[in-house]
Amino acid sequence: MRVRTFFTACVALFGPAAALADPKSSEALSSQQILPNNFKPPQVFQNANLVRNTNLEKGYVRETVNVAIENIDSKPQDQYYVPFAADVIDKVGGFDARDKKNPGTAFKTEL
Q: Which residues contact 30 (CB under 8 A, 6 or more apart)?
């Protein structure tokens, strides 16, 4: 099967969460559960290749996940779900999704 969608999801886990917050605010960041506990995304994508890298060179851990996905459904798809465990999501400092074939293309991401 031909790879129809190729993107890179860069996840900086355990990074400085304060970079996402207003520096003048003293409130702690919190996450909210948007989807129900029993939510199961439609099985329309297949991970063709997945590579995880963990960078320990700085004072924080940066984990990068590169995923090549292919659409196995007969129709074009526009949503891809990346699961996070409940105890990990509060430690995510940033999330980025890019298309390697079109570097200027930005994807909308929600945490």
A: 90
Instruction: Report yes or no: 107 and 28 within 8 Å, Cβ to Cβ.
Output: no
What would the pLDDT profile of 48-104 be if each residue is shown by its tens digit? 999 999 999 999 888 888 888 899 999 998 888 888 887 888 888 888 888 888 888
- For residue 86, what is the DSSP state? H
3-state helix, strand, coil in the chain (%, to 5): 5, 35, 60
Q: Is 0.70 surpassed by the pTM of this model?
A: no
Sign of CA dihedral 6, 73, 63, 111: positive
Phi, psi (deg, nearest 5) at residue 19: -65, -25
Q: What is the DSSP letter of 17?
A: G
Measured distance CA(41)–CA(89) in Å, rounded:
18
Residue type, 12: A
